[in-house]
Amino acid sequence: MPIVPDAKDWTWVLERTCDECGYDPSVVAFETIPGRVRSSAAALTAALDDPNAAVRPDDSTWSALEYAAHVRDVCRIFEHRLDITRTGSARPGPVIGGYDASVVIDESGIPMFANWDQDETALAEDYAAQRSAQVAADLRAAAEKTARAYESVPGEELDRPAKRSNGSLFTVRTLGSYFLHDLVHHVHDVEKRSTATA
Known about the structure:
By secondary structure, the protein is of the alpha+beta class. It has helices at 33-47, 64-87, 118-124, 132-151, 172-197, and strands at residues 103-105, 111-113, 161-164, 169-171.
């Protein structure tokens, strides 16, 4: 069975606790995001030391390697989206298969970035065939760069808005929480996988 595409709109995690991973947006202070980005990346890179990191637990679930490659790209994309939201303009984005870095400014002057199909990227970048050591190095670098980008945000910019092309509205603050949930959730996915196969 192939990986089932994830078509859910996860913006609800900005309003209530995630039942799967326990992420609670109500207790996440913006200034804690950089440290939690680094710790999430560290947990995922450590999982790549497992000799079975590239092995899927079943045909419909990503391996630890695929999750780590995905989170690397999440970091790169959300650094780009943060830049868009802070500046209110189109900004150069990362070159990633399946990722549309284009930006439209709507009639009210709010930047709108394209929706991202993560499953298309997983196929375009062939996550399953990537090398664990390279993914680990790239994930550490991407997470550090994104963490520093969040550290550089001054308080007066936290409410600057941006939209996703499906209509979802974010601010610098809520975009950070949405991004962090993705990382926390995938650490949970990998840890759950490791426990199940232990």
